[in-house]
Write a structure and sequence with these properties.
By secondary structure, the protein is α/β, with parallel strands linked by helices. It has 3 domains: 235 residues, 3-Layer(aba) Sandwich (Rossmann fold), CATH 3.40.50; 158 residues, Ribosomal Protein L25, Chain P (Beta Barrel); 114 residues, Ribosomal Protein L25, Chain P (Beta Barrel). The chain contains 12 helices and 27 strands. The strands form 7 sheets. A 7-stranded mixed sheet has the order 12-25-26-27-23-24-13, covered by helices on one side. Strands 21-18-19-20-14-17-22 form a 7-stranded mixed sheet, with no helix packed on it. The longest helix has 16 residues. The chain starts with a strand and ends in a 10-residue tail after the last strand. Bound molecules: adenosine-5'-triphosphate (ATP) and magnesium ion (MG). The site of adenosine-5'-triphosphate has 14 residues, from helix 2 and strand 9.
């Protein structure tokens, strides 16, 4: 069982075991003091927050220890891979704040070398063409405690193997009719060493090499060699590859170069509660229109998080906090939310936005009068200055900031009660009006005390509640999308029947129209981020225009009703 990791208490990043290995290797002068890593995505989907964990490590370690990090696309399967994914992967890595400089490589750059190596293995009687189907081959694999069965083609003569392998590559045989296998050991307990398939026939053209090849290396055959060809010293990958390591080492040993070997170090992959990370399943969500696309703000993809309002700093900070270990776990998604709150708290200007407006009429405030009240943009950062917000006789407040019959300790507005409109005056509720048909409260009538203007010295009067507000005649109408977790199960993809769809949260998106925003938000641009006071952090959506502003909620404020009575 995977455990839910609660890590909020210990928020200090420390040197990971991987970093310690690197430090030791450098101290010992291994690889002439070189450190060279790579990030090897398969271009078959968009990057997600799990990939960010690998990216931060691969690029981060190289950066910290004066090394280099390559970007290498593992494009060994032309059927699933697309150029769209390559472009998005590059954009996302740059956005996270990392740079591969000129070192953009592709496994397909090495198809020639890999093919030659395969031929070499055949010549050394270390590989053979198997005419059996993948199903039969797999049924002969045995179990970890029972040896596998040798293929009837295992002893095929070298000449015949060579001839068949070349013909496979010339397109003479159907897909699936033959494969090339390494001849290692059908009895070893490590199943990956039981004559693994290293080449298969694929006739779909490749996005970079076209129809030049009809055989393609398996990931396990390509990966370690690509690392070696690029001079990678530290090959950092997730735990599931630990068991593949002897195979990768075996291949490098057969290359017989003897100069050096990449050191593979495995770490735990990132799993997040209430989140599903598999690219294949994320693609299903997109294809089945369960979300609006790869960059739907509910997706765990980097482009989704970006559109949701996450910053690269918040994501990097989160990755730092969870660290790298050898233990599979599920990290709490609230830690990610905590990281973005922490970052936006410092960066995001505070503004007034009313999601569900209720009109307040201040009956003793002169009609036509407008005052500009000065409001601090971010109490965490004085250098962000102040702004002027217009105040007038009619303002909107949040519908649920008013109650006709409030419970005890309701420090907001109710008949006879007083509150401060933040940055402006204290008002008192005198009366309200209902809609005759629906009975809903339509307008609330208040009086204000002119001596209570914030920043003035006339009155020391204090009230318990402070509300955000927007002047009605100056308000901008906006659409606001309230996002919540996409799944309402802690481990949506880890259940027995594997049907994550039934855990989709039906209220993961709520669209509000007719929200009222203060006029300073007229000239925003996509991805601008704000704290709507008392509500949360919001980010301007890509589709937002001046005539139809759209904001996505990144996260709510942790403590929505914390008093801001300053
Ligand atoms: P998925 O299982 O989501 O399809 P993948 O492992 O097939 O992902 P790749 O494109 O092969 O995706 O991954 C590129 C790199 O990112 C690999 O080194 C992989 O180990 C790492 N990676 C992928 N998912 C995670 C994760 N959840 N946590 C940490 N690293 C990850
Ligand atoms: Mg993979």
């Amino acid at each position: 069982m995977r455990m839910l990791e609660e890590k909020k208490e210990e928020l200090k990043p420390s040197v990971s075991f991987i970093e310690q290995f690197i430090i030791d290797d450098l101290k010992e002068g291994k690889n002439n003091g070189r450190i060279h890593t790579r990030f090897p995505p398969e271009p078959n989907g968009y990057l997600h927050i799990g990939h960010a964990k690998a990216i931060c490590l691969d690029f981060g370690m190289a950066q910290k220890y004066g090394g280099k990090c390559n970007l290498r696309f593992d494009d060994t399967n032309p059927v699933k891979e697309e150029v769209e994914y390559i472009d998005s992967i590059k954009e996302d890595i740059r956005w996270l704040g990392f740079d591969w400089e000129i070192r953009e490589y592709y496994a397909s750059d090495y198809f020639g070398k890999l093919f030659d190596f395969a031929v070499d293995l055949i010549k050394k009687e270390l590989a053979y063409v198997d005419d059996q189907s993948a199903d039969i081959i797999s049924s002969q694999k045995g179990t970890p405690t029972q040896p596998g069965t040798e293929s009837p083609f295992r002893r095929r003569p070298v000449k015949e193997n060579l001839d068949l392998f070349y013909k496979m590559n010339e397109g003479e045989f159907e897909e699936g009719s033959r494969v090339l296998r390494a001849k290692i050991d059908m009895t070893t307990p490590n199943m990956h060493m039981r004559d693994p398939i290293i080449y298969r026939i694929i006739k779909t053209p490749h996005h970079r090499t076209g129809s030049k090849w009809m055989v393609y290396p398996m990931y396990d055959f390509a990966h370690g060699q690509c690392d070696y060809f690029e001079g990678i010293t530290h090959s950092l990958c997730t735990l599931e590859f630990e068991i593949h390591r002897p195979l990768y080492d075996w291949f490098i040993d057969q290359l017989k170069t003897g100069d050096y070997k990449p050191r593979q170090i495995e770490f735990n992959r990132l799993n997040l509660s209430f989140t599903m990370m598999s690219k294949r399943k994320l693609l299903e969500l997109v294809q089945e229109s369960k979300v609006s696309g790869w960059d739907d703000p509910r997706m765990p993809t980097l482009c989704g998080l970006r559109r949701r309002g996450y910053t690269p700093e918040a994501i990097r900070r989160f990755i730092d906090l969870i660290g790298y270990t050898k233990v599979e776990a599920i990290n709490d998604v609230s830690l990610l939310e905590h990281a973005v709150r922490e970052d936006l708290n410092i960066k995001a200007p505070r503004v007034f936005g009313v999601l569900e407006p209720l009109k307040i009429i201040i009956t003793n405030y002169p009609e036509g009068k407008v005052e500009e009240v000065e409001i601090v943009n971010n109490p965490e950062d004085e250098s962000m200055g102040t702004r002027k917000v217009p105040f007038s006789r009619e303002v909107y407040i949040e519908k649920d900031d008013f109650m006709e019959n409030p419970p005890h300790k309701f420090f907001r507005l109710a008949p006879g009660m007083e509150v401060r409109l933040k940055g402006a005056y204290i008002i008192k509720c005198e009366n309200f009006k209902r809609n005759e048909k629906s009975g809903a409260i339509e307008e609330v009538y208040c009086t204000y005390d002119p001596l209570t203007r914030s920043g003035g010295h006339a009155s020391e009067k204090k009230v318990k509640g402070t509300l955000h507000w927007v002047s009605a005649q100056h308000a901008i109408d906006a659409e606001i999308r309230l996002y919540d977790r996409l799944f309402d199960h802690e481990d949506p993809a880890g259940q027995k029947d594997d049907d994550y769809r039934k855990f989709l949260n039906p209220s993961s998106l709520k669209i509000l129209n007719g929200c009222k925003l203060e006029p300073s938000l007229r000239h925003v641009k996509p991805l601008d981020k704000f704290q709507f006071q008392r509500l949360g952090y919001f980010c301007v959506d890509y589709g937002s225009t001046e005539s139809h502003p759209v904001f996505n909620r990144t996260v709510s404020l942790k403590d929505t009703w914390a008093k801001i009575n300053k």
